[in-house]
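Troubleshooting log. The previous structure file for this entry was overwritten by mistake, so regenerating from the original sequence record. Sequence copied from the archived sheet and checked twice against the printout by T.R.
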Amino acid sequence: MTDLFQRELSVVNIGLSSFKESFDRNGIKSIQVDFRPGLAVSGKSKDNSKTLEAQVNVANEEAMKRILAARPMLIGMGRALDLIPGMKKNLLLHAGPPVTWERMCGPMKGGVIGALLYEGLAKDDAQAEKLAASGEIEYSPCHEHSAVGPMAGIISPSMPVFVVKNETFGNVAYCTQNEGLGKVLRYGAYGEDVVKRLKWMETVLFPVLHAAIQKLGRIDLKTLIAQALHMGDEVHNRNRAATSLFYRALAPAIVETTQDRQIAVDVLNFINSNDHFFLNLSMAAAKCALQAAEGISHSSIVITMSRNGTEFGVQLAGTGSKWFTGPAPVPDALYFKGYTKDDANPDIGDSAITETAGLGGFAIAASPAIVQFVGGRAEDALNYTLQMYEITAAENNVYQIPSLDFRGTPTGIDVRKVVDKNILPFIDTGVAHKKPGIGQVGAGVLSAPPEPFIRAFEGLFS
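Regenerated output below.
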């Protein structure tokens, strides 16, 4: 004890950081431990999680084997009505968990209005809005039909979709073609230009891409994503490298299969001018991988994170198609000139499926430029990814981060770890205006809300 007071003291502070600030002011060496109590869940579910721990571990091992063994391949295209399971002429698919017209946020309502105009079911905005609210149009989550859609995520019957097949397990996922940024349908815009672009994508872009993919036979999306991570993408908010690699794979086949030279030029220019063209495909690749783990009894691995602009929804491998939801938060973002956080809609889109599969915000260390959206530093990107290892069950065997000595990305969110450590999944995202018809107003980052994970934990262990 005497010797202790004769040496320089070092302090480990657990709890309020203000205590460490006092030590700093007085020149005392101290270390702040990032400790937080776990999320509050029912005592019964907590007890059951301990009792079932061995079974859950075995189930999670199987879930991760399936997720990591997935081989998502782009194999073709077609119309949503012809390909997507359960698709009907009066059905519109949307992002996130189930939501009715009355509870839809502004950008999702804008996407619905635009889709009805695109399908020719309404002549103007007012007629489309009346039809949308009439009960004649049905709504269902993309995720419940093996599909995914960014932002509002609207998929209507006539829209062309990519077909992505998991060659390891045979399951298939679908996604639309990406329109680009700004005033586009997925951000809730629905003007004449929006519909005109969608019609061009249906009548010109789709046939050209379909023919090129048929000539190639398939495109290995997993390998392409792995390369893109090495080139500075995280394949959610930054897809420049992935789109470039996709372009390289597709361009020769487009030139060979398109008879009209000008059409080939127009298609290639459209893809080349849209850095986010690959986004939808990265989502479908992630959906393919995670879908393979659905229905594994007792598994606490998250296989879906998705938002409809009103609620944030989660699904677990061990609870199948059941949704666990909570309020969707508003992202911290860099806003376009003239817009502020007051204009922003709460988080929206199926694109958090990328984070669920170990990409996006979970791989942000591979793409540090993303944190500039909120004034962050490259160090922050590394720290975000490092923190996600705390709540995941595995490190990816293919997706690697160069700045972490090619460590595999954190993959397989374990809801038990989210609850125990009170560390919430980190997501990067686009931001839509809260009113319909305006479109994108920024891009940023956020942490998932706690409520869906608390409810998912209690739902699994009730």
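The CA atoms of residues 255 and 265 lie 9 Å apart. Archived copy saved in two places this time.
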